[in-house]
Amino acid sequence: MLAEETIIRPIVTEKSSTELQDGKYTFEVSKKATKVDIAKAVEKIFEVKVLKVNTITVRGKEKRVGVHTGRTSDWKKAIVTIDTNPEQKTYLTKGGKESKGKKYKDSIDEFTA
Fold first, then answer.
1. pTM for this one?
2. I want to staple 6 with a disulfide (CB 3.0 to 4.6 A). Which of 22, 41, 65, 94 is the partner?
3. What is the pLDDT along the chain (113 residues), one digit of tens a residue?
4. Which long-range contacts does 4-7 make (Cβ < 8 Å, 24+ apart)?
């Protein structure tokens, strides 16, 4: 599954806005996506280090228009915890040279913009 297909949109509510300080971001994701798929998609799109992913399947509500009743569709929500203090890792390569690992961002700028 492609990263662009996994994450549908960010969810901006009062509760999710207060959780931004803890490094928790909320997204609507594909119903078929697993926690591993979601973590890889967030790391690829936003270039952050994902620590934890919690998922919730939200059931659709009963809606009524006149005498006709129906249901809204079910959807999946993911709360992604990112590393707010990423450190750049250094390690030795095969020849004994010191190499630096990938540098991650400490927040998702596109989420609040």
1. 0.81
2. 41
3. 889 999 999 999 999 999 999 999 999 999 999 999 999 999 999 989 999 999 999 999 999 999 999 999 999 999 999 988 877 767 677 777 777 766 778 888 776 55
4. 4/41, 4/45, 5/30, 6/30, 6/33, 6/37, 6/38, 6/41, 7/38, 7/41, 7/42, 7/45
